[in-house]
Design brief:
This protein is mostly helical. The chain has one domain. Helices cover about 75% and strands about 0% of the residues. It has helices at about 1-40, 40-50, 55-70, 75, 85-105, 110-115, 120-130, 135-155, 165-190, 195-215, 225-250, 255-260, 265-275, 285-300. The radius of gyration is 21 Å and the shape is globular. The model is unreliable at about 1-20 and about 305-310 (pLDDT under 50).
């Protein structure tokens, strides 16, 4: 009887450990999807209050860098050994983040986000170019579905060709391309640790805001209020914590499962843009979005696109 009780206790303990090991990575990825589905709103509110988006991005990412430096002091010490691939990662991941925020400031949230989610197509092409990885049967389907979704969303009879309709959509598209490129470069830069890669993402984003702020005539420090500083500090800490949570989740879960969980970002963005900004998608946007989401789901089965590092989050 005592032996049976010990066996039952051991099985219960193992089940609890297994549940914990499964729940924590899922929670990490979902938290990242939640943050990135909502983060457009505080940046947009700051800009409407007279505080430019690039400057807000710079300050919030500097706070995030401070958090990473405190928790991972070894990360910044590895920066001298980045090499060319590390520098490419810093720049491409930096523009993926910055471009995402800039596009969200003026564009329709869901259209920008769906254009960003064309990333699996670019991942396939960049992987073929930089890693010499070949397409499998899912690759052609992903390309067809993604481009078909973009065609449905963007086609305008008056223009005759399916192209982004404004600057924000072009920026969102370029940010998605940059995100895909950063994922491939991250795999190519195998000599770098996960912590220094995460640090590069934050540092690259902060650095790329500087020339944009300069082109706008410098920083508008005079409009900074105590509430704005507090909000940006909170955003920075959230970005720092999200980076750790997502990296942990991606490391623990299979890539195809992670891709599905990251799509929660689209749900959050759709709900938040409708409630907070009064934006509503047309039937054509929904149809195009469905094709792009399907392509993202299938991308988890690709050899070339199945290991998304999701350095953005």
């Amino acid at each position: 009887m005592l032996f049976k009780q010990n066996v039952i206790k051991m099985k219960c303990h193992q089940n609890k450990m297994s549940l914990k090991q499964n729940v924590m990575p899922v929670a990490g990825i979902l938290s990242g999807a939640l943050v990135w589905g909502l983060i457009w709103y505080p940046y947009r509110m700051l800009q409407e209050g007279g505080f430019p988006g690039p400057q807000a991005t710079l300050i919030s990412y500097l706070f995030a860098l401070l958090g990473v430096t405190l928790f991972l002091p070894r990360a910044w010490r590895e920066l001298p050994g980045l090499g060319w691939w590390g520098i490419l990662l810093l720049l491409s991941a930096g523009w993926a983040n910055l471009g995402y925020v800039l596009a969200m400031l003026h564009g329709e949230v869901m259209r920008v986000l769906l254009l960003f989610y064309l990333a699996p197509v670019w991942t396939i092409l960049f992987s073929y170019w930089l890693l010499s990885e070949q397409l499998n049967r899912y690759g052609y389907l992903v390309i067809a579905l993604s481009l078909g979704g973009a065609f449905v969303m963007l086609w305008e009879p008056r223009m005759g060709i399916p192209l982004p309709q404004n600057v924000s959509e072009w920026i969102g598209l370029s940010a998605g391309m940059s995100f895909a490129f950063s994922n491939v470069v991250s795999r190519r830069a195998a000599h770098l640790s996960v912590s220094v890669k995460s640090y590069c993402v934050l540092l690259g984003t902060a650095l790329l805001t500087v020339p944009i702020i300069g082109s706008q005539g410098g920083a508008a420090w005079q409009v900074m209020t105590a509430q704005a500083w507090l909000l940006l500090a909170v955003l920075g800490l959230v970005l720092c914590a999200t980076s750790f949570a997502v990296q942990y989740g991606v490391a623990q879960l299979a890539a195809n499962r992670a891709v599905v969980l990251f799509l929660f970002e689209l749900v959050v963005a759709a709900a938040s843009s409708y409630v907070l900004a009064g934006e509503a998608m047309t039937m054509r946007d929904w149809l195009g979005g469905l094709l792009i989401i399907t392509a993202s789901l299938l991308s988890g089965n690709l050899h070339v696109g199945g290991q998304h590092s999701h350095e953005r989050k």
